[in-house]
Automatic annotation (TrEMBL):
Keywords from the UniProt entry: Membrane, Transmembrane, Transmembrane helix
PANTHER family: ARMADILLO-LIKE HELICAL DOMAIN-CONTAINING PROTEIN 3 (PTHR13608:SF3)
Principal cellular location given in the protein's record: membrane
Domain Armadillo-like helical: 435-671
The protein's name: ARMD3 protein
Places the protein is found: Membrane
Source organism per UniProt: Sclerurus mexicanus
This protein's GO CC annotations: cytosol; membrane
Pfam families cross-referenced by the UniProt entry: ARMH3_C
Length: 689
């Protein structure tokens, strides 16, 4: 017997001896795509349509081949189809609801594809008609809200969220998607919160819910009052906020795990073996960048939660077992397409950490630690545009955290010590730190480590000036808190001082190249003022008096760099060029550093001469420093512990607009046909009651 094959809605005999037959649903679609009312000849047309398995590909394909004029001719039938879809959402039979949801996805995407150049109002008219738009969209949103909040099928909820994501992301710039006005008026915010607060719903749908919320928050956020922003900012329910935190932590942990797996595979793979065989000939290849797709969508959700909701700050420190050490079920995971921005959700089968028992042998973690590890990976390579955006967003999130009083309280809490294994960029002149040797310290130490790591590893021709400025600002804000609250942090401050001095050295060595693109004096001034902060207030927050002595030792030891910087800024500030004013600010900021160098250097030389020592040891220099503090005169500098608070609308609007655009494009790509496949859904609803 000849095998029957199916393709594009056509049924045909493999022998191809007869004319291809069309599926019944395809024939019904063809009737809709005529100017006649399909229910005229068949009063049960719409009822029968939603019992048929949807052919998404055919329906979208039909819309795609029509031009604008042809589409307008069948507008009444499109409106009718849209309205009957909405009516079907209220049906008791789940198969009708499933088919209606999928048909809506195809309709919305198909019509938008045809109307890219036209205004949103034309699209609303094409889908529902102006006269019925308000009522239809109200009914649609109410039906989706009911389905999301109901006790029923998880598959239906998943499809509802897919439809909403489809609705939100049909335009690249979501603020131009005027259909979202109806999503603003008929809010589904409470339904999203309900998903996040329930362990079962969160496991199944948490990722989609969080991404949907992040996108909705960004709809016309600077032009009008967005109810999702207002509502997110006042959420105070602990279960909901913790649920949101767990979804974000799970997605970031998944990224960290994938990176670690690739790193291990890379180290034990072909290149390692080859390098061992033939020496260092292939070292550049062996150190090639390990690439795992970044996840800007989930990072945006974390940013909005931290930035808008002060109650969410407490979630950052909620302890849970290390997610990377969790065992995951071996049940098969549905395949989803991988997108350039990694907006594919992590496996929904993974049990969220809050629902796991704590084990004394398992390293405790929290969302902040997971985020810091994620940041340490994406900030390694800023040459790639997506990673640059991810790195920038990580630093913006850390800026918000560094400004928050409560966040600083737990960052600096001596009773909250963690071992944070940050990823470090492979560099030839340093050995890889062993994970087991990491000490348990307050979380602020990991933040400072991350900043030091960034400073040390990004001194290159394509200099990421913006990221450096943010990095130094974060360090400054943390120091301001320590000074204000007199927190004496036991940290290896020398590593930070050394990194900052090397940064100044780099700026001077590459003065000509960098000045062609950047105002390097802004950054130099910030670095010098960090040293001024230590000099002026270090006695209030450095852990011991000897730490303060070591600061002076480092300044004296590296005095040549400060002397060279002074010569450079003096030269430029005495000229009438464009850098006169910014260079002169650095000149004035160097006054105390120069005073220290000019005061102690003669004393050290005198000590060496009297004691006939050609080269003094560190202890001998420190002895000279300690015995000559009394005669040192420093100027009091104002405003060192002041800073401008972060403001998104005034400074970052363009960045977020572009970021949300790229996320929207990639979420849309991720809603491919196989993610809307009916196979699993129809298994669940195999019988109609």
């Amino acid at each position: 017997m000849a095998q029957t094959e199916k393709k594009g809605g056509l049924l045909r005999k493999s022998s191809a001896s007869k004319k291809p037959l069309k599926e019944k649903v395809v024939l019904m679609y063809d009737e809709i795509f005529t100017t006649e009312d399909p229910s005229k000849c068949n009063p049960r047309f719409w009822e029968e349509l939603f019992l048929m398995k949807v052919n998404l590909e055919y329906l979208e394909g039909k819309l795609e081949v029509l031009d604008g004029e042809e589409l307008m001719k069948i507008k009444d039938n499109i409106n009718c189809l849209f309205q009957h879809c909405i009516q079907a959402l209220g049906e008791e039979h789940p198969i009708r609801v499933v088919n209606a949801l999928q048909t809506l996805c195809a309709l919305i995407r198909g019509v938008h594809q045809k109307n890219k150049s036209t205004s949103g109002f034309d699209i609303i008219n094409m889908l529902v008609g102006f006269d019925k738009a308000e009522l239809c969209m109200k009914n649609l949103m109410e039906s989706l809200d009911s389905l999301l909040c109901a006790e029923g099928s998880e598959s239906l909820k998943s499809l509802c969220l897919k439809l909403l994501l489809c609705l939100v992301t049909v335009t690249d710039n979501i603020s131009q998607n005027t259909i979202l006005e109806y999503v603003m008026i008929n809010s589904i915010f409470e339904a999203i919160l309900q998903i996040l607060s329930s362990p079962l719903s969160r496991r199944e749908h948490g990722y989609d819910a969080v991404v949907l919320l992040a996108l909705l928050v960004n709809y016309r956020k600077y032009e009008s009052v967005n109810p999702y922003i207002v509502k997110l900012s006042i959420v105070d329910d602990e279960a909901t906020l913790n649920g949101m935190g767990l979804v974000i932590a799970q997605a970031l942990s998944e990224y960290n795990r994938q990176y670690k797996d690739k790193e291990e595979e890379h180290q034990t793979g072909f290149f390692s073996a080859l390098t061992n065989m033939v020496g260092s000939m292939f070292i550049a290849d062996a150190d090639e960048k390990i690439s795992v797709q970044t996840n800007e969508a989930i990072l945006l959700a974390l940013y909005e939660a931290v930035h808008l909701n002060r109650n969410f700050i407490t979630v950052l420190a909620q302890s849970h077992p290390e997610m990377g050490l969790m065992t995951t079920p071996t049940s098969p995971v549905p395949m989803t397409p991988v997108t350039p921005l990694g907006t594919t959700p992590p496996s929904s089968d993974v049990i969220s950490s809050a629902e796991l028992p704590l084990d004394a042998d398992v390293q405790t973690s929290n969302l902040l630690i997971t985020f810091l590890k994620y940041s340490s990976i994406v900030m390694q390579d800023t040459k790639d545009e997506h990673r640059l955006h991810s790195g920038k967003l990580c630093l913006i999130i850390l800026t918000c955290i560094a400004e928050d009083q409560y966040a600083n309280a737990f960052l600096h809490d001596d009773n909250m010590n963690f071992r944070v294994n940050l990823h470090r960029m492979p560099m030839r002149h340093r050995k890889k730190a062993a994970d087991k040797n990491l000490p348990c310290r307050p979380l602020v130490c990991a933040v400072l480590d991350l900043m030091v790591e960034f400073i040390v590893t990004h001194m290159m021709k394509e200099f990421p000036m913006d990221l450096y400025v943010r990095c130094i600002q974060i360090v400054h804000k943390l120091l301001c808190y320590q000074k204000k609250c007199r927190v004496r942090l036991h940290y290896t401050w020398r590593e930070l001082w050394s990194a900052l001095i090397n940064l100044l050295k780099f700026l001077m060595s590459n003065e000509t190249v960098l000045l062609a693109k950047h105002n390097i004096f802004t950054l130099a001034l910030m670095v010098v003022n960090l040293f001024n902060m230590f000099i002026t207030y270090g006695d209030t927050f450095l852990p011991t008096p000897s730490s303060y002595d070591e600061l002076y030792y480092e300044i004296i030891r590296m005095h040549q760099n400060f002397d060279n910087l002074y010569s450079m800024v003096l030269r430029l500030s005495t000229n009438a060029g464009q850098w006169k004013e910014p260079a002169s600010k650095v000149t004035h900021a160097l006054v105390n550093i120069r005073a220290i160098i000019n005061h102690f250097n003669p004393k050290i030389e005198s000590y060496a001469a009297v004691n006939h020592i050609s080269q003094l040891s560190e202890d001998q220099v420190l002895e000279v420093v300690r015995s000559n503090y009394d005669t040192l005169t420093l100027k009091l500098q104002d405003g060192l512990d002041q800073y401008e608070r972060y403001s998104e609308q005034h400074k970052e609007a363009a960045f977020f607009k572009e970021l949300v655009r790229s996320i929207s494009i990639n979420v849309r790509k991720n809603l491919a046909f196989n993610t809307l496949s009916q196979e699993l859904l129809l298994k669940e609803f195999s019988t109609i009651s």
